[in-house]
Specification:
The protein is an alpha/beta fold and about 210 residues long. It has one domain (about 45-205): MoaB/Mog-like domain (Molybdenum Cofactor Biosythetic Enzyme, Chain A). It is built from six helices and six strands; from the N terminus they run αβαβαβαβαββα. It has helices at about 35, 60-75, 90-100, 120-125, 135-150, 175-205; strands at about 45-50, 75-85, 105-110, 130, 160, 165-170. A six-stranded mixed beta sheet has the order 2-1-3-6-5-4, sandwiched between helices. α2 crosses α6 (about 175-205) and α5 runs antiparallel to α6. The longest helix is centred in the last third of the chain and has 30 residues, at about 175-205. It starts with about 35 loop residues before the first helix and ends in an 11-residue tail after the last helix.
């Protein structure tokens, strides 16, 4: 298994306005209430971390350690941590089982995102997703490019929503896992998890609103 998106940099994420004015508006020129936008955020996540590897163990898993440290450092809880072999069915069943748990509202996998024959994480996880979030892979590769250059073309980072749970797949190197977790996943997962659960709740029928017929 090869994972070439090995980035350990700290990019400057400060964004200044080009014209000195605030741009907190939507496409129609209406201002947004930032607090309302994040009103559905989940303050304390309960995370499932899955390391995909046929050669590592939970005690020798620097990439998984980096993901756990990023979440716990932000005040979130790791509900379950597992290690699975580079096996498509095993990876898929593990992710599918975790997103169905009541005590898990975010899942992160590390490993198996490259192009060797045993890199099957993306192929295993994609069918489980209801909705893909292509911006995650795009942003991950952009940040990784600063460190590894054009080798990012061999990285298939993925994210999406499965059963109302955000799922993120990052490479198996420690630096790449840390980059994905610290720079993207931990900052955005609370918002995505809240929105995903809200959307699922809105899709469920409310028995109290059902018409009563005699």
């Amino acid at each position: 298994m090869t994972d070439d998106a090995d980035a350990d940099h700290e990019p400057d994420h400060s964004h200044g306005s080009h014209d000195g004015h605030s741009h907190d508006h939507d496409d129609h020129g209406h201002s947004h209430d930032h607090d309302d936008h994040h009103s559905h955020d989940i303050e304390a996540l309960s995370v499932g971390v899955v390391t995909v590897s046929s050669s590592r163990s939970v005690k020798d898993d620097p990439a998984g350690d980096a993901i756990v440290a990023a979440f716990e450092g932000a005040g979130h809880d790791v509900a379950v941590r597992e290690l699975v072999n580079d096996d498509l069915d095993g990876i898929q069943s593990t992710v599918d089982r975790l997103v169905a748990r009541e005590d898990v509202n975010t899942v992160v996998t590390t490993g198996g995102t490259g192009v060797t024959p045993d890199d099957v994480t993306i192929d295993a996880v994609r069918p489980v997703l209801r909705t893909e979030l292509p911006g995650f892979g795009e942003l991950f590769r952009r940040l990784s490019y600063e460190e590894v250059g054009t080798r990012v073309v061999g990285t298939r980072a993925l994210a999406g929503i499965a059963r109302g749970v955000p799922v993120f797949c990052v490479p198996g190197s420690e630096n790449a896992a840390r980059l994905g977790a610290e720079e993207i996943i931990v900052p955005e997962a609370p918002h995505l998890a809240g929105l995903a659960r809200r959307d699922d709740a809105e899709e469920e029928p409310d028995d109290g609103d059902a018409d009563e017929t005699a």
